[in-house]
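Reopening this ticket.

The earlier resolution said the output was attached, but the attachment link was broken on my side. Pasting everything inline this time so it's all in one place.
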Amino acid sequence: MLMFDAVVPAVKAAGAAAAGAAAGAAAGAGGGGTARFSVDPDQAQKMITGLEAAVQRLKTLRRTADELTQSGAPGPDPYSGWATLQIRDAAGAQSGGYLWANDAARIALEQTIANIKKALAEYQGTDEAAENAVKG
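Inline output:
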C-alpha cells in the first residue's frame, strides 16, 4: 500500500464546516493538520485525477462566490441592503466565509495531491531498485 499524508484544513466556523467535514471526519480532527491514508499504488493516479477534478470544481465555485461578494441590493429598501451585506459576509474571504473555506480546502487538496505524487514516486523508485537488485 502507498502511504501519504492528507492535509486537513482548519474548520473554525459552522459555515466552513462543509469544506472540511469529510477530511476532518476521516482525520478525527476539526483543527486542521494532517491525516495518514493509504491507497493501492495501482489506484493512486485515479485518486489524483479525482482530487484534481475537485480542485477545479472549487475554482469554479470560487468565481461564483466572488460574484456574490460584489452583488448589489435588489431593491432600495433597507431590508434588501441588509440581506445583501449578510450574503457578502457569508460568501466572503474572512474567517468562516465561503471564500475562506474554499481556499483552505483547495490548498489542502493541492498539498494532498503533491503528497500522493511524492509517495508514488518514492514507491516506484523503491520498487525499481528492488527489481534491479534482484536482476543483479
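Reporter confirms the inline version is readable. The beta strands are 2-8, 33-39. The first helix runs from residue 17 to 27.
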